[in-house]
Amino acid sequence: MIGLKEFSTFEVASLFGVLGIALLGLYYAFYLRRQILSIPLPEGKMREVWGGIKEGAEAYLASQWRIIRNMIGVLVVVLFLSVWVVQPSAEATEVFGANAKIIVAVGRALAFLAGAIFSAMVGRLGMRMAIDASIRVADLASKEKAPEALKTAYRAGTVTGMLTDGLGLLGGTLIFISFGKAAPDALLGFGFGGTLLALLMRVGGGIYTKAADVGADLVGKIEAGIPEDDPRNPAVVADLVGDNVGDCAGMAADIFESYEVTIVSSLILGLALASLTGSVKWIVFPLIVRGIGVLSSIIGTAFVKSRNNENPLHTINRGFYTSAAISVVLFSVLAQFYMHEWRAFGSVVIGVILAIVIDHVTGYFTDGAYAPVKKIAEQTKSGAATTILSGLSTGLESSVWSALVIALTIVGAIAIYSGFPPVYVLYGVSLTGIGMLTLTGNNVAMDSFGPISDNAGGIGEMAKIDSKGQAILARLDAAGNTTKAITKGVAIGSAVIAAVSLFGSFITDVEKVRPGTLASGIRVSEPLVFVGLLIGGALPLLFSSRLIDAVSRAASSIIADVRRQFRIPGILEGTVKPDYATTVAICTKSAQKELLPIALLAVLSSVLVGLLFGVEPLGGFLAGLILSGQLLAVFMSNAGGAWDNAKKYVEEGNFGGKGSEAHKASIVGDTVGDPLKDTAGPALNPLLKVINLISVIIAPLLVMDINPVVKYGIAAVILGSLAWLLFFQKGDFRKKAFAQE
Description:
The protein is an all-alpha fold. It is 84% helix and 0% strand. The longest helix is centred in the middle third of the chain and has 47 residues, at 467-513.
């Protein structure tokens, strides 16, 4: 507790109280887990299908971890040694004296490791909980116990939500208690570890799930004319596995790292204000706010109980708004009696409002109850081309409204701290991110509810439960599609706010090391800065291109395998069991091949721009990245969600229903949208934060005098590595793929 000498008794007690709340959140997660696992497992076909899904998901994560652990080992060493290149902060030297360098080196490396492990734990444990819950939801639905099925699906999602809340708050608070004012030196490592793991899990899981989904739909539903999740389709188990490794494990890790990164950025900016004002309240306030959020989520999620077979969305939203109301009331008390000012309270509340508004904007463009999705569904009568055009139009328009909502939010933060120095405004923006993710427990519960319901529907279909049970599962799945789309919108919005906050931290850190370097901000009128802006704006497009191409190539392999198996006598007749394991293995191998190139593109791009052009062009690069990434992520996520729900709208019996020409057109639209909404779009969230975090870490180095030979030598090695990964390695892969064919 050497770092807390300047903190009051109330502040120290509050920090330990927050630590207690983090542990309470973890206890609540394991309490709900025990409750769900106490529901007996069904026997027969359900158990058999569930076993295949569980085995495939565990095999995928084990394979992914073998690749990731080596990368983590290397980066632990790099972060330990980074302190000898980028010196510890003045605050670290003040707190730890002559031992600052070694303490920060160990702290940053261990924090990185903790962030990576916590992120992996959230993804893996959340995925396991989703798998264990889905079979129970299917069984409850088959027994026509709709309220119990909804509660089980939501509470299983809540387990993941509370793990995200609890581990994120536990790690951040422990580091802060250990390092005090020097915490940002270690927290950068914590945030980087969580963000990198989230990126890898998003990329790998996204490629896996959509390759299987696209392959299963195009051959099974269009060519063979069999239903979705039909047990005769060899790709159906891989598709159900993909829901877990992509939507559950990937999304949980994604939200977890947003949770971490907003803490990191708010503490860096809070530290700047503490130095300016002499008060540490600016760095304690965000942590207490996070503690309040966990407590509110525990209470709000407990309110999610179905009443008289009401709309599942109404049930879930009731818990969300309950948590939001409790949070706002407690924030006001904290602001009044601790902060003694309303501005910090206003910034946090704007974040809560932002989450709610983005919920509604995303819901409008992706929910089948509203005009945009109905318009796409109507276009299916004219064929696949008009269906795709209508979905593209919807996605593009939704990006505009989401960008305006985020812009107005930042304007609100500016207005709240009007007349104050810029660092106050940036702090206000970071608090907006804290507020937006206050209800992380609720948001992750809503998101996990989607794949759990989807998997339950698939298990029910393959086990051939009766029509009443399937109707219950279809209703849950429809609600889950909307909650998934909504939480993707929140994830994107929080990623942008977090990236903007880190952008502010980047400017603040540069100014601390060499005052006056960015005194005028990032000047876009400077030609080299504009070059950085262009490169940053282009990077999300390159990143998305790589991922969509990866899904396309993997899906082609799945399609070939499914067609091959359909030619085997007895498969389509249902007398011979398909070889599910082969398609699972194809998906796993395809996803793993992309991890290293994508990770290195994210890690090295900002370093390359900084070394070649300098710190201010790197700032331009970050600005272009954030703008392009936000617009592209929302477009892809919402267009894909709208195509998906347009397909479901047709499947409900509209415009000819299942098997009609309109249905076939809607399937094409959905398969085009799948890699957009579940692979490329969501993967942009961690990309923004990985690059911004690395820029914050290397910022002090870029304003130092570096030997030109060393600087440009390193840049040449990085440039050569990226060129090989992006062009030559990609070409080699294609040659091998064609040779195999």
